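Q: Fold this one first, please.
A: Sequence and structure below.
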Amino acid sequence: MDSNKENIEAAPKNRVFISLPKKYMAGLSQRYALDHGLFITELDPNISEKYLISYFKEWGQITKCKIKNNFNSSKNCLADVWFSTEEEADRADWAGPHCIGGTESNVSRIVSPKIQNE
């Protein structure tokens, strides 16, 4: 078996969100091709994906946006927003705090191994 193939990890079949300090992302990127994004909590439940894309497009090209409604709470919706490059995700993160739709939301920088055919 080729020794280079032994060092390459297969990406998980389900998306995994990883939040870690920026200085450790380089090590992770040596083993995986990464998608870069933001994980948003305390999002107003009336915010739409279209609104969220419009809000974050100021910092770069949005490749994916998904809102997850928490039906047990009327105030705590979650979302993930993915950018085309690491630099764009960094700019959006560093621009905080983010007041989205009149409510201050918690925004965390995340990465995820790329999933083929997504």
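Q: Good. Now the second chain.
A: Here it is, same layout.
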Amino acid sequence: MASPLKGEVMRLYKTLLYLGREYPQGAAYFRERLKAAFVKNRDETDPDKIRQLVARGDFVIKELEALYFLRKYRAMKKRYYDPEE
């Protein structure tokens, strides 16, 4: 793996690992799935394919953030919504 791409992959892994702490099915489940995904693609040497995989990982980051914001919104709505109105 090329040097600049290695940094991108490491950043992606660390970010996903951090976001996985609040995953609904548990941090251990998320960590196992994350590790399996990275191990599956660890022998990839084509820079274009690596960039494509990193882009897919960035998409997953955005999806996780949206999931967490939606969960927080639903909790706030449930807590402060007046059902009598």
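Q: Anything worth noting on the second one?
A: The mean pLDDT is 89.
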